[in-house]
UniProtKB/TrEMBL annotation:
Organism field: Ponticaulis profundi
Any Pfam family matching the protein: Bac_DnaA_C
Transmembrane segments: none
Top-level taxonomic group: Bacteria
Domain Chromosomal replication initiator DnaA C-terminal: residue ranges: 8-77
InterPro entries, sorted: DnaA_C, Trp_repressor/repl_initiator
Protein name: Helix-turn-helix domain-containing protein
Amino acid sequence: MSEVDRGRADLLVELVARATHIRKDSLFKTSRGEAAEARARQIAMYLAHVSLGCSLTKVGRFFGRDKTTVAYAIRIVEDLRDDPEFEDWLQHLEDAYQNLAPIFSEPARARLTVLLGARGAAWH
């Protein structure tokens, strides 16, 4: 996973952790963990694959899982999307990511540095 992909995946993980009220580090546990942690991890893996376009192998490496585990997570989340409430919630999460991702892009950081000068470079 490239540095850019890793940064975008970190943003997705942060959003999922906050939206599910699960600690961010719980999404990277080597064990399954609590059911809520596993579900949050499945959602994060799904979004990393769908929203970032990362391969199952790349997503698996990022989360310390096998690509078959990622494929299973994607099937689970796709099934959950049949529930209109979950679909709406997940769509809001995807929208939040799409709205925030450009702020963290390299061009945005470079522009911020230009706008704020050297002090701005240290700030972000």
